[in-house]
Amino acid sequence: MLIKLLNKITLIMNSKHNKWIIENAKRVSFLCAGILLVTSIILSGCSKSSSSYTPSEPSGPTPGNGAKNIAVNTSSISWATSSDPNGSSITYDVYFGTSSSPSIRVSNTSSTSYSISGLTFNTTYYWKVVAKNSSGYSSTGPLWSFTTDNGTGNGN
């Protein structure tokens, strides 16, 4: 008799316990589904490629890339205005020098030209421009170069 009673109590407890487990499992499932939904919404906003935010690469150098016989009294270099896919304002960092890894000369300028002076004869100058938007994205233009004339009037 005692064994039958213990078996009934065990069955009752097990069924209540199972019911509790099932109910809480449903709650946990809904909670997990909610967390996954919120996570997927957040990540979907992050999945856009940075190219949809970066300004266009600087282009259209003057003097032209690889130009020869540029006068030493040339007073500036310039490039075409970069565009931004979101309409943000653009600033530029300008690198210029006689090394193929030119050093920065000006940062965060809104101008599409840079004044140069003191060029020497028969020297190759290298330059590049980095376009940056107000969101912090940037595009680095190619490395451009030009060579000054040799000072004889006969070209290089």
Structure description:
This protein has 156 residues and is of the alpha+beta class. The protein has two domains: 12-42; 53-148, Immunoglobulin-like (Sandwich). The chain is 29% helix and 31% strand. It is built from one helix and nine strands; from the N terminus they run H-E-E-E-E-E-E-E-E-E. It has one helix at residues 2-46; strands spanning 59-62, 67-70, 76-80, 90-97, 103-109, 113-115, 124-133, 138-140, 144-148. Strands 2, 4, 5, 7, 8 and 9 form a six-stranded mixed sheet that branches. The longest helix is centred in the first third of the chain and has 45 residues, at 2-46. It is rod-shaped. The N and C termini lie far apart (116 Å).
Topology:
Layout: H1 2-46, E1 59-62, E2 67-70, E3 76-80, E4 90-97, E5 103-109, E6 113-115, E7 124-133, E8 138-140, E9 144-148
Parallel strand pairs: 2-9
Antiparallel strand pairs: 1-3, 3-6, 4-5, 4-7, 7-8, 7-9
- Distance between the ends: 116 Å
CATH architecture of the largest domain: Sandwich
Which oligomeric state applies?
single chain
Q: Class of the largest domain, according to the CATH hierarchy? A: Mainly Beta
Please state roughly what percent of the residues sit in beta strands, choosing from under 5%, 5-15%, 15-25%, 25-35%, 35-45% or over 45%: 25-35%
Q: Find the CATH superfamily of the largest domain.
A: Immunoglobulins
According to CATH, the fold-level topology of the largest domain is: Immunoglobulin-like
Report the uncertain regions: none
Question: Secondary-structure element sequence?
Answer: HEEEEEEEEE
Largest sheet: 6 strands, mixed
Coarse shape = rod-shaped
Please tally the helical runs, counting DSSP H or I stretches of 4 or more residues.
1
| Number of beta-strand segments | 9
How would you state the average pLDDT, rounded?
82
* Number of spatially distinct domains: 2
Radius of gyration: 34 Å
Q: Which class best fits the helix and strand makeup? A: alpha+beta
Helix % is 25-40%
